């Protein structure tokens, strides 16, 4: 989509969002029309919330009653005091209000002109620490930098409460579970427009993690030593609630347990302050099965069945199997996973796969075995793998060819989003590099790299921009010996809509699509959900596979329908391809999950 069109969409969506917010912030005329002038949005909203005359009007309207002139005049005068009170939490203690009441029964106009006056600034922050935590660096940092408060700036009650919460939570994180603020004073000198904050934290005694016991129910129990690899705290460390929570998340992410509860028995702490810890777990079903029927534009009608064996043995080994069948593509996969390390995502996997596909001009049967080392770093998931592939394929009536490849490779991926199924904002990145050599059991020499980028941006209420980019490149000695599984194609639901799956790419002398060395595709899509579950989309896709890095892209554009189901967004798209000789419209069906 041209940048000017995107800018116009953003301007329109922002204007509409502004109207909605304005309507929400301004009380509707209901017998008494109240207007508060000269305040910022936060102060104005708080003033409206405090005004009794507005509550009175709402109650009369709801009951379909009759306004009383004396009540209106009384509440009008009371409104001055209420506005002054509403301004104090924002640091305005010397405000002045000029009030005006116009009209007569049953309609009045009430106007409050507000002069907030000088701001009340913080002149002193006195934070004292007594007890075991007096020398802790984290508490001393708060004492030296009591954010969000700052000397000389306007006092805001919300920031004062935030500071108190920050102090107590920091103390708890240091194992000071008895810590409490014994002095909490906010002194306002109204005539001099100044505020003093006086706080004293009594840390009490310090606690540590004590003995850790893991309780399991069910049949096959996992080894205690194996589960302890996923603890994020150890006996003797200062008690830290955040570490308790991270351990609970880690045990839940292992997928062995239905529930995980961690209890600190503070009442049983020993004389050194060591708290016994008990991790209670309930077992998930050791096996689960999946069945499915569906239809996709790329695959046609399809059926799937799968099984997960969550715990093969006491060391937590897992087995996952999947069988998916359709007229165009069928695959069977089995993955045996051996966990290791200290994160649920860390493992060594052993995989077997069989695949047959018949798309466009290519028929292919593939068998693959492989192993991978999977580990999560601070931000990226890393996968180092080695795969051996035997491939039989033919290109439309040509003799069948065979290919053998031993492929080492590495991939990295990272996801950030606010929801794993329906993200409103976030991004995903994936990159892979792999290759083979005729010196190491491969039929050809090649190196291939690819990058995938996905993003979603919340433009306005229920209006989202989705973008994706795919880029790939291959350096190969003999392209004819490279099987279709290692060639690039474009077209289809997740590529360039408007064209059939894998129909875009270089062609041979007979016009048959044979795939290319390079891939470039991009897409921009606007999704607008006019109801909670129902939405429409407008999109433009472009790209191609080629034997040169700079492509002349095929372009498709269209409109779509979206329906949010619990498992993802059902997508129905009508796309128009712009290449000459193409059908005018192509229907695409699929399900969008996450990024």
Helices and strands in order, then pairings?
Layout (H helix, E strand, L loop, with lengths): L2 H23 L6 E6 L3 H10 L1 H12 L5 H19 L8 E9 L2 E9 L5 E10 L6 H8 L12 H17 L6 E10 L4 E9 L5 E9 L7 H4 L13 H13 L3 E8 L9 E10 L3 E10 L3 E10 L8 E8 L3 E11 L7 E13 L2 E15 L4 E15 L5 E17 L8 E11 L9 E15 L2 E14 L41 E11 L5 E13 L7 E12 L2 E10 L8 E7 L3
Parallel strand pairs: 1-3, 4-6, 7-9
Antiparallel strand pairs: 2-3, 5-6, 8-9, 10-11, 11-12, 12-13, 13-14, 14-15, 15-16, 16-17, 17-18, 18-19, 19-20, 20-21, 21-22, 22-23, 23-24, 24-25
Walk me through this protein's architecture:
The protein has helices at residues 3-25, 41-50, 52-63, 69-87, 137-144, 157-173, 224-227, 241-253; strands at 32-37, 96-104, 107-115, 121-130, 180-189, 194-202, 208-216, 257-264, 274-283, 287-296, 300-309, 318-325, 329-339, 347-359, 362-376, 381-395, 401-417, 426-436, 446-460, 463-476, 518-528, 534-546, 554-565, 568-577, 586-592. With 595 residues, it is of the alpha+beta class. The protein has 4 domains: 27-115, Ubiquitin-like (UB roll); 121-202, Roll (Ubiquitin-like (UB roll)), CATH 3.10.20.310; 208-283, membrane protein fhac (Ubiquitin-like (UB roll), Roll); 287-592, Porin. The chain has a 16-stranded antiparallel β-sheet. Helix 2 packs across helix 4. The longest helix is centred in the first third of the chain and has 23 residues, at 3-25. The protein is globular and about 95 Å long. Residues 1-30 have low confidence and may be disordered.
């Amino acid at each position: 989509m041209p940048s000017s069109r995107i800018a116009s969409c953003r301007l329109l969506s922002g204007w509409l969002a502004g109207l909605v917010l304005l309507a929400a912030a301004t009380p509707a005329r209901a017998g008494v029309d109240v207007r508060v002038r000269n305040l910022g949005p936060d102060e104005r909203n708080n003033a409206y919330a405090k005004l009794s005359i507005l509550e009175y009007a709402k109650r009369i309207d709801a009951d379909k009653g009759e306004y009383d002139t004396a009540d209106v005049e009384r509440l009008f005068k009371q409104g001055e005091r209420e506005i002054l009170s509403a301004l104090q939490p924002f640091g305005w203690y010397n405000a002045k209000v000029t009030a005006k009441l116009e009209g007569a029964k049953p309609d009045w106009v009430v106007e409050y002109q507000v002069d907030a006056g000088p701001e009340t600034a913080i002149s002193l922050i006195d934070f004292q620490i007594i007890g075991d935590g007096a020398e802790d660096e984290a508490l001393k940092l708060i004492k030296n930098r009591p954010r969000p408060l700052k000397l000389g700036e306007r006092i805001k009650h919300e920031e004062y409460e935030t500071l108190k919460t920050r102090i107590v939570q920091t103390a708890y994180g240091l194992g000071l579970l008895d810590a409490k603020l014994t002095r909490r004073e906010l002194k306002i000198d109204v005539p001099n427009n100044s505020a003093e904050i006086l706080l004293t934290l009594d840390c009490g005694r310090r606690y540590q993690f004590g003995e850790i016991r893991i309780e399991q129910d069910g049949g096959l129990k996992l080894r205690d030593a194996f589960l302890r690899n996923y603890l994020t705290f150890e006996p003797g460390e200062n008690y830290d609630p955040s570490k308790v929570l991270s351990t609970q998340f880690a045990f839940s992410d292992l997928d062995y347990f239905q529930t995980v509860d961690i209890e600190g028995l503070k009442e049983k702490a020993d004389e050194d302050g060591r708290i016994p810890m008990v991790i209670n777990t309930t077992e998930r079903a050791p096996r689960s099965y999946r069945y499915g029927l569906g239809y996709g534009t790329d695959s046609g009608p399809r059926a799937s069945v799968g099984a997960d064996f969550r715990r093969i043995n006491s060391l937590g080994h897992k087995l996952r199997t999947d069988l998916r069948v359709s007229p165009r593509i069928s695959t069977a996969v089995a993955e045996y996973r051996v966990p290791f390390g200290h994160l649920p995502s860390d493992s060594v996997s052993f995989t077997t796969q069989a695949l047959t596909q018949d798309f466009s001009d290519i028929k292919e049967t593939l068998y693959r075995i492989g192993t991978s080392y999977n580990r999560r770093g601070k931000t990226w998931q890393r996968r180092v793998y080695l795969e051996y592939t035997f491939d039989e394929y033919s290109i439309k009536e040509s003799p069948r060819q065979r290919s053998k490849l031993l492929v080492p490779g590495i991939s990295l991926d990272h996801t950030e989003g606010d929801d794993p199924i329906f993200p409103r904002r976030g991004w995903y990145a994936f990159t892979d590099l792999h290759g083979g050599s005729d010196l190491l059991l491969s039929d050809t020499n090649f190196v291939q790299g690819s990058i995938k980028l996905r993003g979603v941006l919340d433009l306005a209420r229920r209006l989202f921009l989705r973008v994706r980019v795919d880029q790939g490149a291959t350096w190969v000695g003999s392209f004819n010996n490279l099987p279709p599984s290692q060639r690039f194609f474009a077209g289809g639901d997740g590529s360039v809509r408007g064209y059939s799956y894998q129909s875009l790419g270089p062609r041979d002398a007979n016009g048959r699509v044979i795939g290319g060395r390079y891939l470039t595709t991009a897409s921009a899509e606007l999704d607008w959900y006019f109801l909670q579950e129902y939405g429409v989309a407008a999109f433009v896709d472009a790209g191609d596979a080629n034997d040169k890095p700079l492509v002349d892209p095929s372009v498709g554009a269209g409109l779509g329908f979206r329906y949010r189901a619990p498992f993802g967004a059902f997508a129905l798209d009508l796309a128009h391809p712009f290449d000459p000789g193409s059908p005018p419209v192509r229907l695409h069906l699929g399900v969008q999950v996450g990024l």
